[in-house]
Amino acid sequence: MKLTDILTRECIRVPIQATDKVGAIQELVDLLAERHALQDRDAVLAAVLERENTASTGIGQGLAVPHGKSKGCSELVMALGKPSPPMDFESKDGKPVEIIALLASPPDKTGPHIQALARISRLMLMDSFREELSNAKDASDVWNAICAHEG
Question: Do 77 and 35 meet the contact criterion of CB atoms below 8 Å apart?
Answer without folding.
Answer: no
